[in-house]
């Protein structure tokens, strides 16, 4: 049996745990929510089963699940405390939460997102929690770009790789992150928010795969990068940043210019986004679209301007 | 102070920068010397025709700061403009980016 039907069976079993129960008569069939190389996610009724990326470390994932279980006001709590093996993958079970409507990004809960992040960042990380994996993800995206360029170079790749090379080692996952380690999500975007209980409950963060200790500005850096690249309107950025500051979030100063703290992670996430856009465009044999070009152009503007090292402000 | 008419205590309010006293009992209003003229002047200013709008409507609030490598419109620190890329990209065209790693 391939992964998807096996995972579907597990989601159904978790949704109807009574032993020897009759075949379920749910109106809704199991729905795959995602089927990517790094994660397969299936929903059945109010239960979601997630098969994590191949090679996921069981002990680290268990520590990350424990954080979610301990912070139900911030993170969606898992249904089970430890991952279960399925074929060569680890599976976790979650209650279903209602996501942000991708067709209505104007309805994005910027304030709620910022408040959840501030709450997360203010929580003392448990002992033994591994580092947040944001920089590692950026490095992986650049490695994928380099691999995609091997058969044939891409003219837009040079500024992206130059911007990557200009980043400090920590942002390239080659050195520990600077500053006091905070509890971080590690991969924040609008797909990482659900209302629980669905459909009208409070917003919660999902996906603990990259959660860990690190520089909290990384979690603000994707919206920051979208804003810097001219994609996110200033008012949405102001709402997000303002709500984070009002909630006492430690990643940026409570007032004044947040960019000394945001600059390096926002550069890294811009490079990551540009690298993945180039990989996708190359794989599809299509040119970059307007938005992807705007991201690559931002990378081109980075190279001559040396990054404001966040650590320089702290020392 | 107390109201000259009903002797109830009077409260001070600020109306467009002019201090006025209002009686907590009969609601009567007491104006000091010059205050009536000041209010009349303010009223005249309000009813003046609105000056013509400048050719480019200024943004109500200054744009928040952005990094020097940000989208071009000046490109200077803290001087992130608002007439550049913002709004040029339809929501749909970049919405997918909001939802993926």
Short description:
The complex is a heterodimer of chains A (315) and B (101). Chain A is an alpha+beta fold and 315 residues long. Chain A is built from ten helices and ten strands.
Largest sheet of chain B: 3 strands, antiparallel
Tally of distinct domains of chain A: 2
| Count of helix runs of chain A | 10
- Class inferred from helices and paired strands of chain A: alpha+beta
Radius of gyration of chain B: 26 Å
Choose one word for the global shape of chain A. Answer: globular
Taking the sheet with the most strands of chain A, its summary is: 5 strands, antiparallel
Shape of chain B: elongated
SSE string of chain A, helices as H and strands as E: HEEEHEEEHHHEEEEHHHHH
Helicity level of chain A: 40-55%
Gap from first CA to last CA of chain A: 56 Å
As a percent range, the share of strand residues of chain A is 5-15%
Name the biggest interface: A-B, 39 and 32 residues
Cα separation of the termini of chain B: 67 Å
The CATH architecture of the largest domain in chain A would be Alpha-Beta Complex
Organism (chain A): Streptomyces filipinensis
InterPro entries (chain A): Aminoglycoside_PTrfase, Kinase-like_dom_sf
Protein name (chain A): Aminoglycoside phosphotransferase
Pfam family, one (chain A): APH
What does this structure look like?
Chain B: Residues 74-94 have a biased composition (Basic residues). Chain B: Residues 50-94 are annotated as: Disordered. The complex is a heterodimer of chains A (315) and B (101). Chain A is an alpha+beta fold and 315 residues long. Chain A has two domains: 3-95, Phosphorylase Kinase, domain 1; 105-314, Aminoglycoside 3'-phosphotransferase, Chain: A, domain 2, CATH 3.90.1200.10. In chain A, 42% of the residues lie in helices and 13% in strands. Chain A is built from ten helices and ten strands. In chain A, the strands form three sheets. A five-stranded antiparallel sheet of chain A has the order 1-2-3-5-4, with helices on one face. A three-stranded antiparallel sheet of chain A has the order 6-8-9, with helices on one face. In chain A, strand 2 and strand 3 form a beta hairpin. In chain A, helix 4 (134-149) packs parallel to helix 8 (259-284). Chain A is globular and about 65 Å long. Chain A starts with a helix and ends with a helix. Chain B has 101 residues and is α+β, with helices and mostly antiparallel strands. Among the domains of chain B are: 1-33; 62-86, no CATH class. Chain B has helices at residues 35-47, 91-98; strands at residues 10-15, 18-23, 29-30. Chain B has a three-stranded antiparallel sheet. In chain B, a hairpin with a 2-residue loop joins strand 1 and strand 2. Chain B starts with 9 loop residues before the first strand and ends with a helix. The A-B interface holds A 100, 102-103, 105-106, 108, 137, 187, 189-191, 226-231, 233-234, 237-238, 241, 257-259, 262-263, 266-267, 273, 276, 289-291, 294, 298, 301-302, 305 and B 61, 63-72, 75, 77-78, 80, 82, 84-89, 91, 93-101.
